[in-house]
């Protein structure tokens, strides 16, 4: 099981990477999912917009795109792309720290790979509840 953090043309500071990786693994364990590999790529708005247009045919900025890449049923292999520009803007918009917003989005991607959706109001409310639970567990203990 491997979790990787990479930056593509952006600067991002992730504190306590080992602790974060352990916590991400625990999300999958709690959700009954087998995690094989997880790749986080931190990038710019422009880069993520291009991916959104190319792969999802969406012409909008977004904070995150999650791809499930597994070829084996029951094993999670994921690629998660996060716009640091969106994270910074959303942190200011929601009046939270950039660190908290970054972790919310990191957990959001993991939760998508665990099967949570966010397209309907009901699904989005459950996703937000799970994100808040993860933030509380991670930052408060």
TrEMBL record:
Q: Entry cofactor note text? A: Binds 1 zinc ion.
Q: What is this protein called?
A: Endoribonuclease YbeY
Nuclease found in the keyword field: yes
Provide the E.C. number(s) assigned to this enzyme: 3.1.-.-
InterPro entries reported for this sequence: MetalPrtase_cat_dom_sf_prd (IPR023091), YbeY (IPR002036)
Pfam families assigned to the protein according to its UniProt record, in alphabetical order = YbeY
Binding of Zn(2+), residues: 108, 112, 118
Q: Where in the cell is it found?
A: Cytoplasm
State the needed cofactors, names only: Zn(2+)
Q: Which UniProt keywords apply?
A: Cytoplasm, Endonuclease, Hydrolase, Metal-binding, Nuclease, Ribosome biogenesis, rRNA processing, Zinc
